Amino acid sequence: MYILVWIVHIIVCLFLIIVVLLQSGKAADLAGAFGGMGSQTAFGPRGSATLLSKATTISAILFMVTSLSLSILATRSAGLGTTVLESAPAKSGAPPKTAPVPVRIPVPTGSQVPQSIPAQPTPVKK
Question: Which stretches of the chain score pLDDT less than 50?
């Protein structure tokens, strides 16, 4: 289904480009280059809809529908829960993850404590 909508979308895109390029501009004369228009409307004088303008409207609607369909179909298959990092092979240079090893620290007993440690720290003179 996704590939079918993708192919229709590409065909509609190409058709829309061709139809838009085949149309002539509404103000293609010399006065249109300097802002002069046939009437004072915002987009120029409104004429009857030609075959090219109807084809442009229909292909623009199809373009929007196929774009929305492709985005919906793409998001439905996106929630599979796999990532790129999960599918990547493990590096051989990295150390394996293991539990931390406890290290024994010897605790000095009364006879091993050095006698030169003062009871109070000496102040530092500046």
Answer: none
Q: In terms of DSSP H, where are the helices of the chain?
A: 2-22, 30-33, 51-76, 84-87
The secondary structure of residue 49, as a DSSP letter, is -
- Angstrom CA distances, 110 to 78, 99, 116, 119, stand at 66, 34, 14, 15
Q: Which residues contact 109 (CB under 8 A, 6 or more apart)?
A: none
Diameter over CA atoms, the chain: 109
**pLDDT at position 65:** 96
**Alpha-carbon distance 94 to 87, whole Å?**
17
Instruction: Look at residue 126 in the predicted model and tell me its pLDDT.
Output: 66
Token readout for 89 is: 């092979």
* Packed helices 51-76 and 2-22: angle between N→C axes, nearest 10 degrees: 150
- Provide the pLDDT for residue 60: 95
Residues in the chain, overall count: 126
Q: Helix or strand or coil: residue 112?
A: helix
As a whole number of angstroms, the distance between CA 31 and CA 28 comes to: 8
